[in-house]
Structures are given as structure tokens and as C-alpha cells.
Amino acid sequence: MSASMSGNTASSSSSKKSLKAFSDDIWKNKTAKINAELFTLTYGSIVSQLCTDYERDFAKVNKQLYSMGYNIGVRLIEDFLARTALPRCDSLAKTSEVISKCAFKIFLNVTPQIGNWSSNKDSFSIFLDENPLSEFVELPMDAARELWYSNILCGVLKGALEMVQMDCDVYFASDVLKGDQTTELRVKLNKILKDEIPAGED
Amino acid sequence: MSQKIISPSTSVNSTAHPGSTGYDYTIGPQQTLPELPVSSSTTGGGIGGGASTAVSTTLPLPSVYNESLNPNARNQHVSLSAYAFLFQELVSQARNASKSVSEIELRLHRSGYHIGIRLLELLNFRSSVSAGFGSSSSSKAFFSKTAMNPSGNALALNGSLSSTQDEPSLAQGISHMKRRDLKPVEILQFIHSTVWSYLFGRVSDDLVKSSERENEFMLIDSAPMLTQFISSTNVQCDFFVCGIIEGILDSASFPCNVTVHSVPEPNFEQKVVFVVKFEPQVLEREALRA
Amino acid sequence: MPCYFAIIGALDNPIYEAEFTSPQFNQFPPELKELNPFILHASLDILEDLQWQTHPQSGAGTETSGGFLRSRHSSSNSNCYLGKIDHFYGLAITGYLSYGNMKFVMVHSSNSSNGTPVPIDDVAVKSFYQEVHELYVKTLMNPFYKLNEPITSPVFDKRVRLLAKKYLAK
Fold first, then answer.
1. CATH for A35-193, among 3.30.1380.20, 3.40.30.10, 3.40.190.10, 3.30.70.1130?
2. pTM over 0.95
3. What is the ipTM score, two decimals?
4. CB interface of B with A, residues 85-114, below 8 Å
5. CA–CA distance, A71 with A160 (Å, rounded to integer)
6. Is A124 helix (H, G, I), strand (E, B) or coil?
């Protein structure tokens, strides 16, 4: 399997299919699962508790969610590499594909779309058609402007990418919860970090 | 502005819903059935200025009422490891915000309680729905039927609403509501079977009544799912599950106190017992009913 | 028939209220309108009594007073919909309990002013309550909603009124 993974983006049409099949197989046969609604409800209780703790200072809530996500991301990447044994991505395009088709799939069972590439190919967007974090959520009026409800995802991506030597900015550009057309996560690569520590397992 | 000092927890920018401003307990019941005033003169009425500028150019905020309670309406699972990561953060968030172990446990308990009160309504309501109702392909066909059913103008009255009613309500698939549980044993069995299966994919390992105390029951879990990844020794993270249990019992009007105790056994090192201690009034009510 | 509907929380506080009236429906007589909340609250004691009875549902059309002694001929084994629980002059009061013991209560008025009791269409009224129950469950699923807080969403309000039109406008 991993042999077909190493092809560059030019051959992505064939690797795309196999990456999907590869991820579906991991999800179906090699992943312990839990009720998605418990996940949704637990996250909901975290966010609503933070809003109370920070006295509805939503900028602080966003920041806290981000940092919780970061803590998750730096640990999650090891789990991810151990389960997939994928080789290092040789391009940001490849990275984006692995994030959407593989990482989102085997953790959250969704496959978001990738798009909105910048002209110099250093940033892209992840469009979440389905978001298991935000089912049954209706933002209160005072939160609708500032709160990025699913901001924990930004932190997760930031932390995980940093552990594979990619220094990125990750942020929400829009969210259907706020009345936007799409839920769009923006990822911008700043630089590849020096390879001081070996990435993940090996 | 002054009447908005108490910020409503669930409300939507009124620009999105001309013709209705929702229930306001400071005013009381509002009259009439929806007669649609076509003018959007209520735009932004009375709501603090800031919010309306930010959302004015976008779609109406989505509403929970447009989502389906049907469990088949969306993905049913996420990976256990995703949940484990989230749960670990819930625990460390509680730890960072607390000064003592008991405060950490209290916060975990509170998070669980938030979930328990929701599960009581959700799971009972769902089990009232006849099996197979609204599943997959039939739901689309059902939509066209319901869309035509209400006497024409009910929907014509309100264009914006008709477009959002794309799922039949689950209530239409109910012939008999599941009974409310009236006895402590009944509601505990609901937790032991329905709730445990929903949360952890299996019933709990046992439900027993205390032989010493009349108001005590014990739910036993030999391999608690959520805390298997938590290595902490001093904090009992299953207080989260205590909160779920207590939230269910409390809102079903069985006020009680739920605690958890580790009882490691050779083959089940993480085995726990949840002890449910009902308040005296629950037993008094039982005695009256008997 | 004009109706006054309320959801009463665990602290006996209304979390939602609505009057279903329209030109076709008639209005509440002015002298009764103001009394509705009091009439409704007066029946809460009966409802709390029925709450813990094994077979609380009153037989449809039974017209004895008192309300809570009629428990024999319930058409189903259900104990969420309680049927007609009380009456007050020409008004009938029906009740429904959610699993979290939110009290759904409605005062039904008749169009005639001669004091004859309002007939209750149990099937329609029960369907109305069950649909509103579903809307309530959705309200509760929102993590930002706190138990026993007023439901201020305009969408909820609109949905409830459409349901009233569908099930109660007769």
C-alpha cells in the first residue's frame, strides 16, 4: 500500500483512489469506535463550560479551544503515524490530501474537501461539509460574531503539522454556524522547520 | 436595550426571521398563529447593534430545529482515539481550573450532568419512534407528502419555513410514547441497559440493590471505557459518568447523589462501582404509591 | 377554539407561553384572557398528582370533576399524554409530561359562551404535544441551552404555532 503512496502529486489521480481505499479500510477494520453523539455532547459541554468560565469573553474561549487542540495535535500525530505508517509527504498538496482523506476519515469519519489554493501553493482551505463537533449547535446571539465553535480543530492541525516539521497558521475563515455558506478552515504553510528531531516514529 | 440585560441562551438574529420574534418571558404569551406580515419592519428590533452588522450580509443562522433527531441522519461513530484525546483535554482543563482534587471531580461531574439531562429526553423520545420510521430512502418520499399535507397556506404563509422543513418530524412516527419511568428500579434499568448501550456499546455489568441501605443501588462496570486511557491515580475521572447518571436521575425527578469507587480485581484492574444514593423523598414517594 | 399553551419548568416557571388565536379561531373573551395563566397554574397540582400514577390518563370525554380519580379506561398505556386533567367553567385543561418532567399544559376555550365544556380531540391534541416535545428535545440538545431557561428562539415559536394550526385549528 505505502508504495503507491510515495508517488508525487502529478500521479494523484491514481493515488487518490488508493489513499481513500486505504483509509476506508483502516476506518472499517482497524479502528475502535465510539458513539459520535457522545463526542458531540462532550465537546458541547466543554465549550459551554468555557463560555461560562471566561464570562463570555469569546476571544479567550477561542484561544483556549485552540490550545486544547494544540495539546491534542502534538500527541495525535504519533497515533496517526503509528496507525497509517504513511511516509513523509513531499508536497503541501500531498499533505492536504492526507489530512482530508486519511486523518479526518480515520479520526472523525468525515472527508472534507480541499480547495482555494493560493497562487503560490503555500496555503489551502479545508471545507467541512459535515462537522461532528457542531451537530445540534445554535450559537447564542452574543457569541455569533466572535466565537469559533470548532476552533479546537485549528489547534489540532497546528500541533500535528508542527510535529512533522511544518510551521503553519491554521484558522477558521468561515463557519455555517455563523450563517456563512461554508465551514472553511484555512491552512497556510510558513516554513519547513529544521529537522532537529526525527518525525514521529521514524 | 435594557430589557436585554439577561442575554437569552438560544436566540437568533431577528433579521433572519421576520414576522416572529420568539417568546419573551418579560412580555408573556404572544397572540395569533403566524399571519405573515410581508414587511420586514422588525429587522434588528431591539437587539444590540454589534451582532447585526456582522451577520447582516450572510444567510440566516442555522437553527437546531432544522436538524433531525433521527440517529440515522448522520454519521454514527467517531474513532475511540479521537474521543480519548478530547476526554483527556476535558480532564486537564478541569485540572487547570481547579485547586483541589475534589474540585476537579466536581467539574467532571458537572460536564457529565450536562450530558445526562439531554440523554434522558433524547433516548426516551427516540425509543418511542416505531422501528424503521424515516430510515434512509423513505424520508425523501415522506417529505413531499408532508409538504403538501398542511392546508396549502400553512406553508405558503411562510416561504422561509417551507424550505427548512426537509425532514419529517420523528413525532410522526410515534404511535405510543414510551412510558415515563416511575420507579427507581425502572429508571436504573434504563441507565443500565439503554444508556450504557448507547454510550459504550454494551449494557453495564450489573445492577444491584444495596443489602444494607434501602436507598442505595450499585451499577457495576468492569472495564470503564472512557477512563481506560487516563493514567492519573489521584483523580477519579469516572466522576464524569457519575454526572451523566445523576443528570438523568435528577431530571427524571429522582434526586440522588452518585459516587464512584474503584474495586480492582485481578482480571479487571479498572473495575468501578457507581453508587446511587437516592434522596429520602424518593423513597417516601415510593411508599405513598405502594 | 382559542388555546393558551405553556411549558412549565421544574421550578414552576414558564419557559414558553403562547396564545393560539386568530380571526378564524375567535379570541379569548377579554375577561378570561388575563386569567389563563392562573387557571393553568391551578391545574399544576393535579398534574403533579397524575405524574406519579401508574395509569394517569383520563378517559376521553369523561366529564366528572376533580380529574385525577379517573384512571381506569385509558386507551393506551402511555403516561406522557395525560388527556384532560381539569376544567374551569367552559374551559378544558389538558396536560403532557416530557421525560425530564417538563409540564406541557394547555387551556382550551370554546367558541360558544354558554358554558358547555369544550370537547377535546385527544388524538390531535396528543399529536400536537408529541411534536412540541420533539422541538423541546432539539432545544435541549443545543449545548448553550440551560435547563429551565425560557425558550426565546423565534424558530421554535414559529414551529409551535404552525403545529397549533395543523392540529388544533378546528
1. 3.30.1380.20
2. no
3. 0.89
4. 85-90, 92-93, 97, 107, 110-112, 114
5. 9
6. strand
